[in-house]
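Customer escalation, tier 2.

The customer says the design service returned an amino acid string that "doesn't look like it belongs to this structure." They asked us to rerun it and document both sides in this ticket. The original structure tokens are below, unchanged.
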């Protein structure tokens, strides 16, 4: 899988560029695996995934794109690690709250239950 990335400044003609891309894809009888457009910090970032190398190369040349290898896999890993970090933080917050409640109820370390 080849991921072609086209970056357009926010002042660029996005609809005209998207129309040109659709016409190119239709003319070359190409159905990309994925076609997305994101707006990031004043830029439009278009990702197009191709299964065929020759079509990816031709599209990249036609629209001045660059290539990102395994961007989807990398992003999946980033999302997974972020979720893991959130779970750890939530777990630590829960443990801290549980310990604080236990101490306030006289059940903390060094105290016997029922005796203050």
């Amino acid at each position: 899988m080849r991921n072609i990335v086209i970056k357009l400044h926010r002042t660029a003609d996005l609809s005209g560029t998207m129309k040109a891309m659709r016409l190119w894809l239709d003319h070359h009888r190409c159905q990309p695996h994925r076609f997305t457009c994101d707006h990031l910090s004043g830029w439009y970032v278009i990702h197009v995934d191709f299964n065929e190398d020759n079509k990816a190369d031709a599209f990249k040349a036609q629209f001045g794109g660059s290539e990102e290898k395994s961007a989807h896999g990398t992003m999946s890993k980033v999302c997974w690690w972020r979720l893991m970090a959130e779970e750890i933080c939530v777990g630590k917050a829960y443990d801290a709250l549980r310990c604080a409640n236990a101490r306030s109820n006289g059940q903390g370390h060094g105290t016997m239950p029922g005796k203050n």
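Tier 2 assessment: The sequence is consistent with the input. The CA atoms of residues 102 and 108 lie 5 Å apart. DSSP finds three helices and four strands in the chain. Sent an explanation to the customer and offered a walkthrough call.
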